[in-house]
């Protein structure tokens, strides 16, 4: 791998990743409001612009086409100031991001949140195991430099608010250093 080049953007790009149900979308929206970033909900983008290779019945999900997603997002990411929300992180170009937030939650939280979202039992189980096995955190550590990864606990509203404050503070500092 070639090292990421120094970004020319004046506002950072942030990736918020984690197992489904850890609070990515809620956190990303709050960060966007607090710090003036734009949200990219990759799951919605994939559906809206058909960046997939069809629907997978058993797993109740779309077959991700990573190349299509990266091509579609390249231009949006170029100017900085984007807050990206997705449950995997290893296929994005490393150079896109100035901060990678991995949200973590207790398995009971993940279970309850996905159950109230109406997920099927097999999909809930799969995601609970994903959180127990720290799949996304490992993936982030393999894909990004450790000094841009922030692993944050998101079990309560208080924790979520503290996380948003921490991320907004990062944005403000980045912007003051890249004027
Ligand atoms: P994700 O985008 O990771 O799937 P979400 O933001 O949609 O997660 O959150 C799922 C549900 O859980 C939603 O109803 C909001 C709630 N939630 C998320 N983070 C929370 C937190 N830290 N404390 C309390 N509730 C939270």
Question: In words, what does this structure look like?
Answer:
InterPro entries: Adenyl_kinase_AK6, P-loop_NTPase. Residues 1-16 have a biased composition (Polar residues). Keywords: ATP-binding, Cytoplasm, Kinase, Nucleotide-binding, Nucleus, Ribosome biogenesis, rRNA processing, Transferase. It is found in: Cytoplasm; Nucleus. It comes from Coemansia thaxteri. The chain is globular and about 50 Å long. The two termini are 29 Å apart. A hairpin with a 4-residue loop joins strand 3 and strand 4. The protein has a five-stranded parallel beta sheet, sandwiched between helices. A two-stranded antiparallel sheet has the order 3-4. Helix 1 (24-35) crosses helix 7 (157-177) and helix 4 packs antiparallel against helix 5 (121-132). With 179 residues, it is α/β, with parallel strands linked by helices. The chain is built from seven helices and seven strands. Helix content is 47%, strand content 18%. The longest helix is centred in the last third of the chain and has 21 residues, at 157-177. It has helices at 24-35, 42-48, 66-78, 107-116, 121-132, 135-143, 157-177, and strands at 14-17, 38-41, 52-56, 61-64, 82-85, 99-104, 149-153. The relative contact order is 0.23. The mean pLDDT is 94. It has one domain: Rossmann fold. Residues 18, 20-26, 113, 154-157, 159-160 line the site of 2'-deoxyadenosine-5'-diphosphate.
